[in-house]
Specification:
The complex is a heterodimer of chains A (171) and B (362). With 171 residues, chain A is mainly α. Helices cover 74% and strands 0% of the residues of chain A. Chain A is globular and about 45 Å long. Chain B has 3 domains: 41 residues; 152 residues, Rod shape-determining protein MreC, domain 1 (Thrombin, subunit H, Beta Barrel), CATH 2.40.10.340; 73 residues, no CATH class. Chain B has a 6-stranded antiparallel sheet with strand order 1-12-3-4-5-2. Chain B has a 6-stranded antiparallel barrel with strand order 6-7-8-11-10-9. The N and C termini of chain B lie far apart (101 Å). The C terminus of chain B is likely disordered. The chains are: A mainly alpha (171), B alpha+beta (362).
Amino acid sequence: MSYLANDQFSPGETIRRMVPSATVFLSMLVMTLPMPFAWGVMPNLALLFVIIWSSLQPRLMPSWAAFGLGLFADLLFGGPIGVWALLYPACAIAVGMAESRAEGHSLNIDWAFASVLLILAQLLCWQFLHFTGWEAPLLPLMVQVLITILAYPLAAVVAGRIQRRLIDVQG
Amino acid sequence: MAWNSQPSRFRGTRRTSFARRDSNLALLGALFAGIVLAFALVLLVTQRVNPELGSRLRGATADALSPLISVARAPFEGMRMLGGAIGDHFRVVEQNRELQAQLKAAQAKVAKSDQLAAEVKRMEQLIGLQRPERRVVASGVASAVSANAGMRTAIISVGLGDGVKPRMPVIASGGLAGRVTDVGQGSARILLLTDANSRIPVKVVRTGWTGLAVGNGGTLLDFQYDIASGSDRIRVGDRLVTTGDGGLFPPGLPVGVIINADASPPRARPLANPTGLGAVIVEAPWLPPPVFVPAAPAAPEADRKLAPPVPAGTAPATGAAGSGTGRPAASAGVAAGVPASAPTAARPAPAPAAATPASPRP
């Protein structure tokens, strides 16, 4: 962290550093797109990308960036402010702690860990909604979690490709 | 880190300083993460204390999002309409027969209801009933429901600039669609009636039973009602309309049709399809919330011997202020005309000091 902070960045480098946040931002917009489905069948892509990026590039998804993205998500989804602003950084921190303890990765282990995290996050979201006085039924949230878990490998592949194309290229 | 393993006095001291710096930074990072989390938690608690706090920001976000959605909804709307057109094409003969039968039944009903409507109007004129008028504020187009679990909202293309304000009812072609929650300058977010936060006072047209239509967060409504006396029961196909209770939704708006009467509570399907609202109108709240004016409660009549009871008079006065504007002024006039009761009848806060010397006077 220390030597990175002292480096000089070109504008292109700065843009590359914003790519993870930009993907989360874009997936949020995709989530709010009007879909002719009655149930919440859109996976929670933004949360998924927060988890994946904080595993792939922890320095490009710091807790404050996750907080800002979560704050925007709250405004965008029209819910009480603070729910995702709390859950995004919490997820990023949880992933960071797990990464510092566990070594070696396989897709299955990452997937299992992300599933647990997603379920916990949606359950907490449900509780927070109740805490702020919103009625939120559990069933649609759980359906969404299921679809989000199924979407994990796809999102991981997308994030991996983006990483190869935009972040790892030097100069 | 390979060079670290070589024992050298110079490098050794350097390494520890690096290590210390790293651990310090890690500690700072953890502290910072904790601060971020705490700040988010504070936001959440603030929302619990005052849910209205971020309303303007949400409206502004909806504003920024509105053009994007209007572009993005075009292909979906097209797909939906295409699907509908193909379905219609294959069912046209069947539909035609159905419609003719329905038309015949409807014509007979219309004749009867015209007669009844004229009768009701005459009766209302006779007793001088004043019905609040419905007023259309704006009409616009709604985007389809956003696929966001837990919240059933849609964005409509009219906002504060068109006079749309939070709380206003939104009506689609099929029936009631929901109400406005957040407004932006040129767009607004509406809470659909299928959202779990939505509660709409409704009644069953056939039986007159009243209850609440509560969204289940999916596609349907739960009709929550108290079991009324009598042997009748809710049937499949019973229509739910708004009652006008609460003063927000105008009475008589179609809300839903019961599709499962055995469930507890009975399930209803909303008549306005929440996944494709199309054009909607926004109306002003049907009965605007009363503006209470400080008025003295009605004075007790012909009871001069005893000191007038203080709290008994307050209840009828608030009721009168709600129903019309004429009566509070009249009651104030009455109170002013009876000097003995005027001080006690005033607001309880300043009253006791004036009331205690007044009561043992006679």
